[in-house]
Structures are given as C-alpha cells and as structure tokens.
Amino acid sequence: MTAIITIADKFRNIFQRFSRFGTWFLEHQRRNLIAIFSLFILIAFSTTVMVNITPRPSNLPSTELNTPVSFGTLNKTASLTKSVFNKNNGVLELHYTISDGAVSDQDLVDISKIKFTAMTDHGGNQVTGRVVPTSNNTLVVQFKNLSHNFNAVTLTAHDKSINTTTVEAPSSVVADSSSAKKTNAKSNTASGKFIINRDKVSKSNSLTFASQKELEVSESDAKISAQQKLVSKNTHAIVEYQKAIDQQQASIKKYQKILAQSDDSDTQASIDNARYAITQIRTQISDAQKNIQRAKTNITQYQRTKKQVEDGKSLLPKTTDL
Description:
Layout: H1 2-27, H2 29-52, E1 69-72, E2 76-86, E3 91-100, E4 114-121, E5 128-133, E6 138-144, E7 152-159, H3 173-186, E8 190-191, E9 193-197, E10 202-203, H4 212-261, H5 265-310, E11 320-321
Parallel strand pairs: 2-10
Antiparallel strand pairs: 1-2, 1-8, 2-3, 3-6, 4-7, 5-6, 5-11, 7-9
Helix pairs in contact: 4-5
C-alpha cells in the first residue's frame, strides 16, 4: 500500500511540473516561438555552410593508381601512377604513363600528340596547371596555387593523332551521304577521364613546382631503378633455376643406379622426364639472361638520356599550359 502511494506521489509531482512548464510556456509564448524558429534557422544555415563551403571529396570515386584508362580512337591508354600534393604551397603532381595498345614498344608513343584538359572543384582563383613531358611515354601534370581545401581535380586525356580510319574520301554524293553515317558510327572516342579526390592523394610537405629538367631527370632515375630491379630478379631466378637443374641431375644419378640393377621401364621414364625438365629449365635460364641483357641495354639508354637532359639537350617537347 505504501509503495502504491509513493508511485502516485511521483506521478503527481511530474504532472505538477509539466503543468507549471505549460503555464510558463504559454505566458512566454511569443518569445519561445521566436527562439525555436531562430534555432531552426541556425540549423539550416549551418547545414548550408557545411554543404557548400566545407571541403569534401567529389561524389564520384577517384581513379585508382596504375589503372589503364582508354582515350582517343587509336587504342591508347593512360595510367595514373602517382599523385602527390603539398598543401602548404598548393602544388599537385600527377604522374602518367601512356601506352599504345597497337604497339608493344612503349617508347614509340608520340608524347607530343598527348594533351590534357582539366577542371578543379573548389581549387581557388589562383590555380594554374601545365603538362610536362618527362620521357617518350610518361608525363607529369602539375598544378600550383591549388587551394589546400580543394575537393577534386578532373583531368581528361586527348590523343591528337589522326585516325585515318575515320577519314572519308567519298567518290560521289551518294557515297558521301552513306559515309557520313559510317563516320558517326566510327567516331566514338574513349573518354580518358581521371578523377583525383583530395582525400586520395599522397601528402608531401617537401614537394615543389619542379622544372621540366628536374622531372625528366627524376623519371630517368626511376626507369633506371626499375631496370636494376629487373636485373636483380632475373639474376636471382637464374640461381634458383640452376639449383633446380642440380636437383634433377641428382635424381638422374639415383635413377641410373636403380636402372643398373634392374630393367625397369618406369625408372627409365623418370630419367627421361628429368632430362626433359633440365632442357626446359635451361630455356628459362636463357630467357632470364636475355631479360638481363635487355635491361642493361635500357639502363645504358636511360643513363645517356639523363646525361643529355642534365646538359640541357633534352629532345622532348616543351611544357604546355592547361
């Protein structure tokens, strides 16, 4: 009974407090409604500021590194291999490798025919950009004075090479009308679009707006390093291949001892298989030796190119503004 009375008293107190609050609210109704309305206005304003002013990545996903993106009509692809940003000076560096899908030798890409256009989202009013060729199949797109709060940069690659398959030479008016339809069907151009969101780029406080000479030398160093790694891996492979040959030769000796004591066709088959395996391994060794020789030739070429650049004799096209 006492517990019931206690609960009833609590409900009575809650009701009395609610009644007093209701009375107070009605007595100050005008002021309270203004306060509530002001609160909603403040929330709406804050939300607008967050949406329109606060930097954020774009709604589209960033292009992944080392992902070939087709552009133009001649099967060329561009791959973003590196993206670095220095928020202190607004320098953004985007490294690209250009590949020609129709040619296996990547050095045959005419880098002078590769162009880029760019747009920035919240990049600021002072931002400028340029395209810097760094080798026969690589280039760097540079930005400076880019806002440290930029949302995203959108780049589009273009191939200015002439695709003769889209060029028509009609022999008559009728043929001209027909060829126009074919040309429209053939002229589909791959987009070549890259999206670089701010939250996906690497950060570096030491990055500067490097000159073309500096970027060319750096690219040569990177190519030399890559070829040296190739030499190292193939040298290691040859060592492992030789160990495999030694194992097969040891097996042959073991099988030959068994064969000397019995005329076992299975044993002879094992010997033949081991000898065939040795032949295959020696072919792999030969391939690895060719890889090493090719890599060393490339290293010599890159070192020669680097020396030319350092001497101010670069053969690459000059930088172009975006």
